[in-house]
Design goal:
The protein is an alpha/beta fold and 242 residues long. The protein contains seven helices and twelve strands.
């Protein structure tokens, strides 16, 4: 299933009733916009976002602190037990394209820090005020900012020619995509080239292309053809196609 994007929602176990209800509405709208949503899976903001997502038949994944999937709130689509305690916080940030911090205390602050360390965009709503974190003053503004971040992605169509066929080159390409936060796919073509669709920020695609032109030790890249197109489909991972 293709999603609009992956959103990690961060917030505390303690939340005022008004913010709890607002978070439910945010969850409903995330599901309606077809975002895949990640959270910590517990109570408070995490429960409210899961409740909203589930009400609109969306998908909400809870990354839990403990060893029992049943410890998550009742609204989760997929609870994932980690037995990592607060060490599970970075797992949420690794799996999302953009973060949304709602309220929260020190645990939320740590998740914000991980997002910034990973150079991933994050939006705050009634949460911490931190440099490099965008702030939304209303629910409508959250979604304006989310869609602006999504549309910031470019799509590069890449043909690589030379001694490049073989699973080793496709694995190299996928690994570089993961390294530079690129989503898309790569496959061998009948003419002996390798074709790749790469989706990400303009700067990350530039870095990705630099590594492809260098190629792995086993290969010999002769030339790379690149064209850019408007993003219509949003990829959520980098795949090797056969």
């Amino acid at each position: 299933m293709k999603f609009t994007g992956r959103v990690g929602v961060f917030g505390g176990r303690e939340v005022e009733p008004d913010l709890y209800n607002e978070t439910i509405e945010i969850g409903r709208r995330l599901a309606k916009a077809n975002f895949l949503v990640f959270c910590g899976g517990a109570n408070g903001v995490m429960e409210a976002i899961a409740k909203g997502v589930s009400e609109n038949d969306g998908t909400i994944i809870g990354i839990l602190k403990g060893i029992d999937p049943e410890e998550g709130n009742e609204y989760l689509t997929i609870p994932i037990a980690t037995n990592m305690g607060i060490g599970r916080n970075p797992l949420i940030t690794y799996n999302c394209d953009v973060g949304l911090a709602i309220g929260g205390k020190n645990g939320t602050l740590s998740e914000i820090a991980y997002m910034l360390q990973l150079d991933k965009p994050i939006i705050g709503y009634k949460s911490w005020i931190i440099d490099r974190m965008d702030q939304a003053l209303s629910i409508d503004e959250i979604f304006v900012k989310l869609m602006a971040i999504r549309m910031d992605n470019s799509m590069a169509q890449i043909s690589i020619h030379g001694r490049v066929q073989g699973v080793w080159f496709r694995v190299f390409t996928r690994n570089q995509g993961i390294r530079f936060h690129i989503n898309g796919w790569v496959k061998n073509m009948a003419d002996g080239s390798v074709y790749c669709e790469a989706q990400g920020t303009e700067e990350n695609i530039r870095l990705f292309l630099h590594e492809l032109r260098r190629g792995p030790e086993l290969g010999k890249v002769e030339h790379v053809n690149v064209s850019y197109t408007q993003t219509h489909e949003v990829y959520t991972e980098f795949q090797i196609k056969h």
